[in-house]
Amino acid sequence: MNTIIGTKQEMTARFNARGNRMPVTVIQASPNIVIEANENNIKIGAGVKKNVKKTENGFVKVAGFAPRIVKEVKLPESTQEEAKTIKPGDKLTVSIFSPGDIVKVTGTTKGKGFAGGVKRWGFAGGPKTHGQSDRHRAPGSIGQTTTPGRVFRGKKMAGHMGNATKTITGLAVVAIDETKNQLLIKGPVPGTKNGIVIVEKTGIAKNPANYRLSEEVEEIAKVDEGSAQDHSNATDGLETKDSPSQEAVLIEKTLENVKNEATDEPETTTQEVEENAK
Hints:
Helices cover about 20% and strands about 30% of the residues. It is of the alpha+beta class. It folds into 3 domains: about 5-110 and about 165-220, Translation factors (Elongation Factor Tu (Ef-tu), domain 3, Beta Barrel); about 115-160, no CATH class; about 225-275, no CATH class.
């Protein structure tokens, strides 16, 4: 399997192993339930629907409830043999993904209502000077004259903006949290908070290591404490800056020996000095 249904939660940031900051989107993907399984495709469901229709009683028999959203997934030829082991009632979790997988995410964009040409299509608007008082955001000409005598279909004009299905490709999975059933995907994802999204695996990144997160602070601290302890054990019995070196000890000993030898010599009297002078 390569597809799962989830909900968009929030955007945050993480750091990869090289220390680069990455914007990521958190997707909550609770276990999906297989409703139907065929040779070429399967139907998966996610969420719980409050009001159940009679046409959804088949879902209730399989899953025990009516899913909020149902998606039919086409199986690639490489996984059709493995798909034979999938049966109705099985669960799909985020474990089907791994860091470094390339995915495409489909969702419903935010609705913007009725928008003009400047906001909807990025029109530059009219001139700001030379007596133009009401042409700043006007759409301008929309067609020709007698020939063809109509407006071509698909003309960029003001109209309803947003609230449309949008698919973003080339995104990468950064991390997986199986305990919380969460996916961390690099980059933005279409839709509002708690909006339904469909995540589908399309390949593997050339360098998956670029998307792996750095170690947690606690793990780094443990490593630092262990290395410090090993260093202290290795330096036991060695000289430190405060302790005297072997050369200093030898110099002190030689000085003491010289002083002792000087004190052992007999002292000469004044009479002996005068006699030696004569």
